[in-house]
Amino acid sequence: MESRNDPDGVTLSPHERLALWGIEAGLRQDRRLARRMRHPGTRPAWLPLSVAVLTCVSLLLLVTGILTSDLTALWCLAALWPVTVLLAFRMLRRAADAGGRSGTWP
User: Mind telling me which residue stretches traverse the membrane in this protein (predicted)?
Assistant: First the structure.
């Protein structure tokens, strides 16, 4: 008779147990998965906050550059705007990924 290690009372063949142990060993080595499993609902709030701050600073530099024609303000805007757009797309991608996992995405 085979041992019943599963709390649901499911009996696994030796081959299935070996495959399951291999899968579990691979999952145990994934540190990112382990961190997500320890804290499943928490996400750092730095990304939306940084996008909001960078957008405000970019708009301020844009207005300052237009009103004063200061090259320093325009060059700072040229350096800051791509970073702002990149982080905004990253934030939108995370929101879309989270929506797809929860089943709300069509």
Answer: 45-66, 72-92
